[in-house]
Amino acid sequence: MIANIPLPARDGPFEEGFWSALDAGTLAHQRCRDCRRWHFPPRHRCSDCGGALAYEPVSGRGRLWSFTVVHAPVLPAFAPFTPFVAAVVELDEQPGLRMAGYLVHRAGDPINAVAPQSLTIGMPLRAVIQPLSEDVRWPQWELISEDETA
Ligand SMILES: [Zn+2]
After folding, report:
1. How far away, in angstroms, is 140 Cα from ligand 1 center?
2. Greatest CA separation found in the chain?
3. Which of 64, 74, 98, 145 is spaced 20 to 30 A from 128 at the CA atom?
4. Is residue 2 domain-resident?
5. Is the pLDDT of residue 12 over 90?
6. Are 32 and 65 in a shared domain?
7. In angstroms, what is the span from residue 37 Cα to ligand 1's centroid?
8. From CA 78, how far away is CA 100, in angstroms rounded?
9. C-alpha of residue 94 to centroid of ligand 1, in Å
10. What are the start-end ranges of the E strands in 7-147?
11. pTM of the entire structure?
């Protein structure tokens, strides 16, 4: 857990389904009711067809799309954990459905336990919803083997 993280704004018009899913320990994203395209970050309407969006659970499976090693964090609360890996994960549901997060070997590990030298773009990951602080839950991404992707 990390102390003194600024709380995310949870009162936005489109985000409640995202945060309530995380509160329940799951990951959900908006999906178009018409063309079935997934969307993140949350938005008002489908950017492809203009259709209405509704939250649906996702598999929590993805692949490492990109990463960087953070030495100077934007938020001071993260300074004790530097250096750490900040990753962009592409979810299995759809090419281009990506979100940022932290990598861990197992749920509960600190966010600085994964060595960047061990990472390969495209490696499989699994979301584990963890508290970053008392009030903030965010998916962290466990490194898994290709055998665990089935
Ligand atoms: Zn659509």
Report:
1. 28
2. 46
3. 74
4. no
5. no
6. no
7. 6
8. 15
9. 13
10. 28-32, 38-39, 53-57, 61-70, 84-91, 98-104, 124-131, 137-143
11. 0.91
- In this structure, the answer to whether residues 64 and 54 fall within a common structural domain is no
What is the distance in A from the centroid of ligand 1 to the CA of 31? 8
Other C-beta atoms lying within 10 Å of the C-beta of residue 64: 20
- Domain count within the chain: 2
Give me the percent of the chain exceeding a pLDDT of 90: 74
Ligand 1 mean position, distance from CA 16 (Å): 20
* 89 located within any domain: yes
Q: Residue 19: which domain range?
A: 11-58
Residue 96 CA to ligand 1 center (angstroms) comes to 15
Between 8-22, 52-66, 105-119, the lowest mean confidence (pLDDT) is in 8-22
Ligand 1 centroid–CA 44 distance in Å is: 11
The answer to whether residues 77 and 42 belong to one domain is no
pLDDT tens per residue across span 37-56:
999 999 999 999 999 999 99
